Amino acid sequence: MIQRHTFDFLKDLVENNNREWFQENKDRYESARENVIDFTGEWLGLMKKIDPGINENLDPKKCVMRIYRDIRFSKNKTPYKNNFGVSIPAKGSRAGGAEYFLHIAPGNSFIAGGYWMPEAAHLKAIRQEIDYNADDLKKIIDADEFVKLFGEFRKQEQLKSVPREYSVDNENIELLKLKSFVAFHQIKDEELYEKDVAAKIATICSKIYPLNVFINNALV
């Protein structure tokens, strides 16, 4: 489970997002990070039983994303993220395909999966897979349990115009216009404090698993 001190650290970081405060509270950061790594290890162990594509030797530490922001090209110059992010690639050990993602932030925690903003070549391949096998995708995203957990898949950000490879009268044009292919489920802070939360999150991810298989099949 995620400890309350981890959320306390993140709440204080929101109010004190500067290098001086962070250095003075480095021990709190390290303690929070270790909590997230330990949780990731538990979650990862459960996920390997659900998704055989996950690298058996994947290190939980490598799944926890850096808290340091790249501010070189950003107007927001705060040096640290106000959250912990955990990414489990659905195939192999590197990003660049479907994944399971946990965002830990006070009042804004969520579990997500799929592929957010694919690069051009991957986007083209996913659209082609949708064009060829849309019925397979629709069976996944239109299932009652999927909709209950993640909402309407087609309501993600779409292109304003039709992709040039496809016609406006394509019966699956709403899916082909998508920029991302993500299932998203909000999690309350209190849920992350529960001892069995890793199992609950893994169960949610089991409903994302078929979507990740569809996406990664497109990228083969």
Q: What brief labels describe this structure?
A:
220 residues, alpha+beta, four-stranded antiparallel beta sheet
Protein architecture, described:
- This protein has 220 residues and is α+β, with helices and mostly antiparallel strands.
- The chain has one domain (4-218): 2-Layer Sandwich (BirA Bifunctional Protein, domain 2).
- The chain is built from nine helices and four strands; from the N terminus they run ααααβββαααβαα.
- The protein has helices spanning 4-15, 19-24, 26-50, 60-63, 120-141, 144-150, 173-176, 189-192, 197-218; strands at residues 84-89, 99-104, 109-115, 181-187.
- Strands 1-2-3-4 form a four-stranded antiparallel beta sheet.
- Helix 3 packs across helix 9 (197-218).
- The longest helix has 25 residues, at 26-50.
- It starts with a helix and ends with a helix.
- InterPro entries: CHP02453 (IPR012808), UCP028451 (IPR015996).
- Pfam families: DUF2461.
Radius of gyration: 19 Å
Low-confidence spans: none
Query: Gap between N and C termini, in Å?
Result: 35 Å
Number of helices: 9
Question: Can you describe this structure in just a few lines?
Answer:
The protein has 220 residues and is of the alpha+beta class. The protein has helices spanning 4-15, 19-24, 26-50, 60-63, 120-141, 144-150, 173-176, 189-192, 197-218; strands spanning 84-89, 99-104, 109-115, 181-187. A 4-stranded antiparallel sheet has the order 1-2-3-4.
What is the strand and helix layout of this fold?
Blueprint: H1 4-15, H2 19-24, H3 26-50, H4 60-63, E1 84-89, E2 99-104, E3 109-115, H5 120-141, H6 144-150, H7 173-176, E4 181-187, H8 189-192, H9 197-218
Antiparallel strand pairs: 1-2, 2-3, 3-4
